[in-house]
Structure prediction request, 61 residues.
Amino acid sequence: MKSSLLMAFALMLVLEGLLPFVAPATWRETFRRVTELADGQIRFIGLTSIALGLGLLFLFG
Prediction:
């Protein structure tokens, strides 16, 4: 389990690093837009991301 968790974390870091590496201007603009969102909107995005991740884990895990 520990190995799978570390591999998942490593894959997340690779995926998170792709956009800033490939298109830094787009990443910067996207990040700027996110900082302008209200707290409730950011929480909703986080909750949606958690729900999708858990759904995928249950579906494929």
Q: What stands out?
A: The first helix runs from residue 2 to 22. The chain is about 90% helix and 0% strand.
